[in-house]
Design goal:
single chain; alpha/beta; Rossmann fold; 8 helices; elongated; AAA+ ATPase domain-containing protein; P-loop_NTPase
Length: 243
């Protein structure tokens, strides 16, 4: 999936600047997410207590989105992503507040060492700062080992996606890419009111990543269709885009 702001040409007829369902710049995560919990309140706790926040769930449900949105509140904190090819012995830098995406891929022995290092890093900052805090995503339940290391654990299991919540997510993306004067009522295509969303929800369930990928492809198809129409129509002729 391309960057959300690439391939802008051809979206004018759809009422958009670009395809809003591509990948998003890191600084945009916080404004586009529809969070499952109060991220500002969580950020305050991370700054003042020995806390481990864990976003847990299956692939594509929004764990990393929540973690990256939370990280925008800590731009100085290290953020480590352990991809599918990452070594389980990857070095993860410790800091008073530490972010780790896909923590289950780190070897258990190194995870436990990281927990201790973060606490020590927090202690060096003094009582007015973080006591050593972690924000993680994981497919596995890490609560027992985090509690054994001395952390208070706040776990958010990212699962389930109502059709209404999906529409809210789509609305927010459309507003982000909308051209001046466009609204959710006038945007073409108005995906928030289209049965396409209901079909995708029925097909993919709570797999938000797959839904967004399908919406990206759908808009690319519409964009190409409009480009073909623009090429074929007579000068001065304007045709409404069809979803």
């Amino acid at each position: 999936m391309a960057d959300a702001r690439t391939r802008r040409r051809g979206y004018e007829e759809l009422g958009l600047f670009w395809n809003p369902f591509g990948t998003v710049e890191a600084e945009r995560w916080s404004e586009l997410i529809v969070p499952r919990l109060d991220l500002d309140a969580v950020a305050t706790q991370l700054r003042t207590s020995r806390l481990a926040v864990v976003f847990r769930g299956h692939m594509g449900r929004g764990k990393s989105t929540h973690l990256r949105a939370l990280h925008t509140r800590f731009p100085e904190a290290p953020f480590t992503y352990l991809g599918p090819e990452a070594s389980p012995r990857t070095h993860v830098p410790a800091a008073p507040v530490c972010f780790l995406d896909e923590a289950q891929r780190l070897a258990p022995r190194l995870r436990r060492r990281l927990y201790r290092q973060v606490i020590r890093a927090g202690a060096r900052r003094g009582p007015e700062r973080s006591m050593g805090a972690l924000a993680l995503t994981s497919h596995e339940d890490l609560r027992p080992e985090l509690e054994a290391a001395g952390y208070t654990v706040v776990e958010s299991v990212i699962e389930g996606l109502s059709e209404a919540n999906l529409r809210t997510i789509v609305d927010r993306r459309l507003r982000w890419a909308a051209r001046p004067g466009a609204s959710l009522e006038t945007l073409r295509p108005s995906l928030a009111d289209d049965p396409l969303l209901a079909r995708m929800h029925a097909r993919f369930g709570d797999d938000l990543r797959s839904i967004q990928g399908a919406l990206y492809d759908h808009l690319e198809t519409l964009r190409d269709r409009e480009a073909d129409r623009e090429h074929d129509r007579k000068p001065g002729e304007r045709v409404e885009a069809q979803v």
